[in-house]
Amino acid sequence: MPKTALPNACTKSVLRLKELHFGDTKNIWLRRGTKAPVVCFAGHTDVVPTGPVEKWDSPPFEPAERDGRLYGRGAADMKTSIACFVTACERFVAEHPDHQGSIALLITSDEEGDALDGTTKVVDVLKARDELIDYCIVGEPTAVDKLGDMIKNGRRGSLSGNLTVKGKQGHIAYPHLAINPVHTFAPGLVRADAGSLGRRQQILPADQLSNFQYQRRYRRDQCHSGRAERQIQFPLLHRVHRSRG
């Protein structure tokens, strides 16, 4: 999204713009109105890494339209949602210039990363000046087959940790004298990936391993490592509602 898009929309929709930057993170808070309830649209401008750029059919940071679809980093998650926020606000204000309550946008550039200086810091600032959000709509992509066919109304968070498995270092010529830590945790990894570690609830699938990084310690080509470490993350899955319409 061009840098001038939100300020221009701010002026057009008479939204008050407040820039709240912390470190390298850029945040903006836009609001129209001074009374409650405050309906806030929340989103982010940062994106996940591109991976190998040469694998893309078009430059990842140059939007390209092909067969009625928009391609580029952020096309789904979630710069297009911000564009929808802005357009919706413009149309709503044009049709209802004297609307009740307030409309707000909270946009951050720190969501895909550590998420330390983004929404959290902005909310702290709002709390300090007693400016509270009554309703918040997060424009993350959730549609499966068509626009609006799924609404996620909650998130249970995630469970992350570092797991260290100890074995017994030994030469590969004598594997029976060593204990390979990979053999110890590999069966558990299979179970986790199959979702068997999570408890299935009535309308929720079992929690499943989503992020895994493995590192051998004391690696030598002719030697079994005596220790292995891995980072794990289990997203505690959303409560979802699929529209039957």
UniProtKB/TrEMBL annotation:
Coiled coil: none
Signal peptide interval: none
Keywords: Cobalt, Hydrolase, Metal-binding
InterPro entries: Bact_exopeptidase_dim_dom, Peptidase_M20, Peptidase_M20A
One GO BP annotation of this record: L-arginine biosynthetic process
Keyword check for Metal-binding: yes
EC class name: hydrolase
Name of this chain's protein: Succinyl-diaminopimelate desuccinylase
Organism lineage string: Bacteria, Pseudomonadati, Pseudomonadota, Betaproteobacteria, Neisseriales
Gene (UniProt): dapE3
